[in-house]
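Z., the sequence and structure:
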Amino acid sequence: MKFTFIEPEDNDREAGAAVTPLAFCDIDEWSRTEPPRRDWAVPDRFPLRNVALLSGEGAVGKSILLMQLAAAHVLARDWLGTLPEPGPAIYLNAEDEEVELHRRLSPIAAHFGASLAELKDNLHILALAGQDAVLGYADRDRRIKSTLLFERLTKTACDIRPKLIALDTSADIFAGNENDRSEVRQFIGLLRSIAMTANAAVIIAAHPSLTGINSGSGLSGSTAWHNSVRARAYMQSVKVGDGNLRQLEFMKSNYGPVAETITLRWKNGVFVPEPKTGLLEKYAADAKANEVFLELLERFRRQGRIVGDKRGPPLRQHRSPRNQKPRQTGYETKTSPTPCDACLLTIKSTSKATVGHRAPPRKSSRGRRSSHRNRSIKPPYISCTSPRVSGVYQRTTGVAYIPHTPPPVCMTRSHGPVARLRVLRVVHKDKTEIVSGDGRDQ
């Protein structure tokens, strides 16, 4: 194989003559000083001089949450249980008009106990709806180039020295290919230059793709969006309750704790952390659940219905005592414990219920041999010793559990009809309420 050496042109020689030596880190200087502490815009969540990502579906509340964070920086107030670094903030919004941002900021200021006049000097909002908000684009060589708006933003940030630069959203400020790893990484590097120059945290709001929503990753496009930023959070709606709950999960943090999840409630135009259930409330809820369990068990005893403490394969066809047609239940068997399991364990541990053995009732049908006639193993049963509940309950083979919708259902199959025992825990703001019900072959 023959190689041909090509002489460089004159302009290449001139460019080569201007190249400066590489500047390596001075480890000798490191050895004589202590490492500096890490600076945070939001402690343990969003670091300074770095780029972070906040993703979520449309209308989930990302923009309002970012405006709350910007106001918290300016007013030195609490944000979701942490205290952001006090200082100015820049918020660039390319989706909403100025009048809409005014509507959103008013309840935020009221939430912090401040007036809009207290925000006018240090909170800088750019409303670019309907305008060109692109900060970076890809040229023919797939290299990301900055725009005039980017240069203006950089200059302004260097003058203001904000603690936060919020950019809403990635689809408006990035004119490259979100699926191209190289272009995405170059764009994040472009924004990192602003963060380092202005000593600020840059947070990008983004929308996930359908795949990102279904998988729970909250991403759209290349994995470089996740890998290039130093922190990432995913905001999503909670599918139960009154529709005002959100879940904010911190999916990545290179410098702080990960997998932190905060439940938020939409209230009076802002998002506030939902208080967690305390130890006393948990004890009260468990006691209420046990009481309901015993009441249902007593109701089953009076009705002559057999229930058990074990789970087994799915239910099979059966005939109801009302001569209904047989049907296939098709419920899926799960291994996770049900509310009924938890109540039964508690009741058994407090000597309110015991498990024994009893031979099953004989069953015949026109001379055919009973399936239990020669059975050597006798199934266990539940014997309740509570003063309020007494009787003998035989364990059967089928118990199914549905985790979400419909409510958790503990189903047991005896030699006759199917018995359903429902225990649904409903958590309200100030109390925990147990709703129960039962039915025969519905």
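Confidence is low (pLDDT under 50) at residues 1-8, 313-337, 354-360, 370-442. The two ends are 83 Å apart (CA to CA).

Let me know what you think.
H.
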